[in-house]
Every structure is written in structure tokens, then in C-alpha cells.
Amino acid sequence: MKLNHRGLLIVLSGPSGVGKGTVRKALFNKKGHKFNYSVSMTTRRPRPGEVDGVDYFFVSREQFLKNIEEDKMLEWAEFVGNYYGTPKEAVDKLLDEGKEVVLEIEVEGALQVRAKMPEAVFIFIVPPEREVLYARLRSRGTEPKELIDQRIAKADREFLLAHKYDYIVVNDDVDKAAERIIAIIKAEHSKTERSIYKYMKIIGGEKDEE
To answer: What is the CATH number of the domain that holds 146?
Structure first.
């Protein structure tokens, strides 16, 4: 029995190159949960194989800035000349419907969400060793060395912000990392602060509407 009416927002974050996207896809392939992925928006160009509306919403800089001005973004950040962010209307709608919503976002954006929606579950994904992350970034082959160096420097700064998250998950094995996140989500659903209202209705003898 589900004790909390409102949906659960799960924020997956961590340094660039840590494998957030791969872990998120493995998570969605797990049975027993129906996750809703909130697609981020960006002004950068699509990488080979990326699909608009699936990997990101690829928009113009002008459109993104208009969304910021109209307060339509749950979070946003600028990095090496491009904007990244999460449109908030779709997230709010899914949560109001009681859905589990997953955001896969950068660290700066996750901290913005934390300030606006502290009830969300914040999970910091880390590599087993820093050199593993550096190797992943260098092996991408889709970005110039200067940009890769900037991402490495940014990752070093972001490692120091892990204490601002609720949980740390080591991505030493993608499937195991996804299993750890599933365990976290199951535990979060039973937290008293999320479930006490419905529980009090049950023990008080009120008939549940669901």
C-alpha cells in the first residue's frame, strides 16, 4: 500500500562523465517501478545519436532565456556558453498525479532544486575513483581538449558538494548502482514525513479514496 499521495521527485546528479545517463537508463529498465523521466532542456547542439524530446529538448538561446524570464524553469545553469535546465510545469503535473519523477541534472541545477523543493530525494552519483571519471571524459572523442579540461576542473569542484545530497551512490557497476537507487526510493516512500497523513487516516478508520 502506498502511503503518500504526492509523487516522489528523485534527483540524480554528479560530475560530468560519472555515468548519470547510463545509470538512469538502467534504473528505468528495473521491474516493479514506473518512473517518469523529466527531459531537460539545453541550447547546446545534439551529440551523435541524441534525439530531440528524448535525450534533451534542444532549443535556441533566445527561447531558453525567455523561459527563464517567465519563471518556467525549475532549475537552470550555464556552462561553456550553453544553457541547461528543467522545465517545471511538466514536473509539477506528474508529481500532482502521484508519479515518481526522475531528474538527471548537473550539480548546480540540483542545488537550485534543493532550495525550491527540499522534499525531493537527492542522490549524488560518484565514480569508484576520480581517474575513472577523467578517463571517461577524455575518451568521449566528441569534444575538444579545452572543453574536456574545463569539465575535469568543474568535476573536481563538484566532488566537494557531495555533502549537500541525501545519498551517495558509487557507480562501480551500472546495474548495482541502479539497485542501490531502487532501495533508496523504497525507503523514502515509507518515511514518516511522507506517509503520516495517510497512515493517520487508516488508523482513524477513515476509508481511503484510492
So the answer is: 3.40.50.300
State the residue range of the domain holding 121: 8-38+98-203
Asked, for residue 177, whether it belongs to a domain, the answer is yes
| 189 membership: H or E segment, kind and range | helix 174-189
Asked, for residue 74, whether it belongs to a domain, the answer is no
H/E stretch holding 201 reads helix 192-203
162-188, pLDDT tens digit by residue? 999 999 999 999 999 999 999 999 999
Closest CA to 105 of 36, 42, 29, 188: 42
Bridge partners of 12, per DSSP, are 104, 123
Give which of 178, 158, 157, 156 is closest to 169, Cα–Cα. Answer: 178
Q: How much is the pLDDT for 206? A: 56
Long-range contacts of 198-207 (CB under 8 A, 24+ apart): 198/3, 198/4, 198/5, 199/3
- For the chain, the domain total comes to 1
